[in-house]
Amino acid sequence: MNDQSNRRRFLKFTLAGVIGVTLGGKNLIKPAQASELPHLDEDDAQASALKYTHKSPYEDRNCSNCVLLQGEAGDEWRPCQLFPGKLVSSKGWCSAWAG
Ligand code: SF4
Question: Domain High potential iron-sulfur proteins family profile: where (predicted)?
């Protein structure tokens, strides 16, 4: 897959994720619901496109310090704005990480 195609997929998924999870600035995933969500599969198409991994390859960048992570601080698995309906590992990472 070329860079332009990857960029297009990333933008499509990002837009879908932001629209899917937020509406009018409100977070639609409540903490009680979040814990019931399935864990994101590293082989999921969107996860693969963003090189998501359950264990970050970086010491200073992981899901727990990414601005796109949601949910309760301290939980091992939490919702992420880019992966609506799934939980990511707080120790994970993807190429959309933003500090
Ligand atoms: S690093 Fe990627 S998967 Fe982790 S919280 Fe940030 S955007 Fe989500």
Answer: 34-99
Does residue 62 contact residue 92 with C-beta atoms inside 8 Å? yes
Residue whose CB lies within 8 A of the most ligand 1 atoms, among 42, 52, 76, 82, for a mutation test: 82
CATH number for the domain formed by residue range(s) 32-99: 4.10.490.10
Tell me the domain boundaries of the chain.
Answer: 1-30, 32-99
Q: What is the pLDDT along the chain (99 residues), one digit of tens a residue?
A: 555 555 555 545 554 454 445 444 445 556 557 778 999 999 999 999 999 999 999 999 999 999 999 999 999 999 999 999 999 999 999 999 999
Beta strands in the chain (DSSP E): 22-23, 26-27, 77-79, 87-89
80 lines ligand 1 (CB under 6 A): yes
